[in-house]
Amino acid sequence: MKMEKKYKPEAVERKWLESWGKDESMYYFKPTSEKPSYIIDTPPPYPTGDFHIGNALNWCYIDFVARYKRMRGYNVLFPQGWDCHGLPTEVKVEEQQGVSRHQISKHEFRELCRELTRGNIEQMKRMLQRLGMSIDWSREFVTMDDRYKRFTQLSFLKMHREGLIYRAEHPVNWCPRCETAIAFAEVEYEDRDAYLNYLVFKIVGGEESAGEEKGVERAEVEQQEEVEIATTRPELLASCVAVAVHPEDERYKNIAGEGGAVELEVPLFGQRVRVYKDESVDPAFGTGVVMICTFGDRQDVRWWKLHNLPLKASIDERGRMTAVARGYEGLSVTECKRKVVADLEAAGLLKRRERLRQSVGVCWRCKTPIEIISTRQWFVRVQKEAVKKAAQEIRWHPEHFRVRLENWVETMEWDWCISRQRIFSVPIPVWYCKNCGAVKVAAEEEGEELPVDPLETSPKTACVNCGGTEFEGEKDVLDTWMDSSLTALWTAGWDLNASSESAGTGAAGTRAAGTGVEFEPVALRPQGHDIIRTWAFYTILRSAALTHKIPWHTILINGMVLGEDGYKMSKSRNNTVSPDAVIQKHGADAFRQWAAIGGAVGSDVQFRWKDIVAATKFTQKLWSILRFAMIHLADYEGEEGAVNPRPRLRVVDRWLLAKLNRLVRSVTAAMENFKFDNAFKSIRTFAWEVLADDYIELAKSRLYGRQEGLYGRQEGLYGRQEGRNGAEGARSGASGQESAKYALHETLKTLSLLLAPFVPFYAEEMYSYIAGAGGGKSVHEEKWPEAEVEQQQEAWSEAWSDPSDPSEAEAERKAEREGDLIAGIVRAVRSYKSERGIPLNAPLRKIEIYDAGTGTVERGAGLETEDIENATATKVELCRRESKTGEESEGKSEEGGEILDVDGTRVVILF
Could you tell me the CA-to-CA distances from 143 to 84, 106, 451, 498 in Å, in that order? Predict the structure, then answer.
């Protein structure tokens, strides 16, 4: 096959995409296979936009693992799912359609969401295919499909039966923009400018029963007419139900007591509140006095519970002030704050204002500041110890991310709120009896077919509490994490409708998935560190609750992608780059190289165009090597074809294979530990430095079968050294050529296999040339190379000058030592010529190599010099240490030659 001089990624990648598309079965998971299974819990992304560069980085990691494991003999399941439900899709529909969910019917709004989702799935799917992902598309799942919705509802019902899901009135995080409850994990924190307002609270007296012993203190209080309180939320004055001070704050010892010694009057609203002692008050903040409102933050919730305070809700679900706020009713929170401050100032109740930076909780989707309001919601019980125990049983890469999860679990102050006041999600399969209010849950054994929408259907049986037959369906839907937290169980094929130890018919397809009977954790969960507190946490929690097992054995964490300026990619910084932009310019394999070599797994990875350019230079360099090699290997069939049986190998060829063997071991170890950067750097270094810079220069004359190198006819070559290796002498001519062909062929073939997980298009193209007409097999169906010395031992042993050494490991080390010396000498001589402006193909008078006292180059030790002569265009002589020619005098030999030191070996250049 004719090879283009320049590698053309666009043409090559399109060719193989078309070829692979004709038969995708080589990537299919085979449930009845006897191979060990390796199941990946692939992240199902939100299909609300383009497949961004952070997604692409994570999927590259997944594909590296999937392709590697297939080549290692595993039956790999790499499915693709789509997490369709939730706020992102609804928000996008409202933006694109210019409507609110309240303006059209739920059915119409839901269909708009589904239509948008289907289109985005196809768009993102094309990008995954273009990136060369080896996904089993026959196992694709979509969370908005009925099968998956049924799976989600079954999980709800099972946990409800076991008391792990309940409904209760409780303060929850609330997004006024999205008009829904959100979980702790969906709250982000941003630093924003705010004002600390110093307000006047008047002292208006206290309990008459405080006792005569407090008379002196009360007299002191009566002399103090007011207390100053600093707050950033004056709009919550209507909800103020108490005031607190630190028990050791001497400034306020006379106004605080058990149950409250005195009362304060809330400005503008006039309600009287007590003063409590609480150690959680920071005396250094503001004036050291804080007001307790229902609710300004989570600390308010703690105090409200601790002191059994009343509830006064002044903010509603839309972020508007309620009747509790009296004259401010109907205003937004921002409007109310502005008007309250103005009224306080007019009444002389605002002492001063100070600017400060404040950490504000916002909705992670729309960035609207959240409120905490008390509503009736559905919750999942968070069993903290079970989650932490499971996290410790999982292998984390990197390990320190486990601590992040454990710390997150400890900060949770109430259970996971799973009900959402939205439309596009899985309905909560519950009704309420209109007669007695009892909860009626759906049950397939009672004739209800899941998935069920309680707003469109009624229960098949009467209320068990009162016998009533009229019901009201639950309007709320499930948090989207209730869908995606099941991906491990779905992918493994577990049947939630059966016992907790059954396998079922999810993505894995049959009961043969996993072990065939009992649910087994899947092999791998790859995900970003930004969703440890959501996807990782919820999946571990749900798996522990439903199966009492961990969901996966290993979790692989990727970092975020930084722009060229070193900051997180964002449109506001104008530092974003799309995968498609990279592919259009340099191809998918160049992008995948950047993903592999950009940084250690778990660390943030900076995108730099120069890294993409370096990737293209590497592939072009290796392409040039392949193109040169194919001149000599076009008709080479090697051992399998038996046309070219394994020859007796020259030292340099043994050296190359020893280096290759070391490379295979290094890359394999790195892949087993998900160190993709180390693996690919090793491949790149070997190909560039060992193969291109050293070996090709040493072996090219033998490959041509004559004393002529790549730079034209070599003049001044002196043939072989007679008497160095007894009767064998130097192996030039056909034997030297076949030895070089064998080594080069084995090396390029192995390189194509090692490259296959990282650059699948390039590796396939490379392999198609190396395999030749007798190939026809994809590189991705080949076995991973084995780094076993005994495979080369038969060929090597014929070439040893000391056949008494039986050690295979020592044989490999010996080959490396001798080859390193030969390559080092050639590099030193070429460097010597370059520094002096001598053409590299110009002959010198002679090169003398002296034994360093280790026996390496002693006569008869086996060092072959023909490749040195060919690479340096100069005659080479091996000399004993006692030779006077090599005696040193200020870096010069007696004959005036230059003395070089090459790893302890003296080399004299005579010119």
Answer: 6, 19, 12, 21
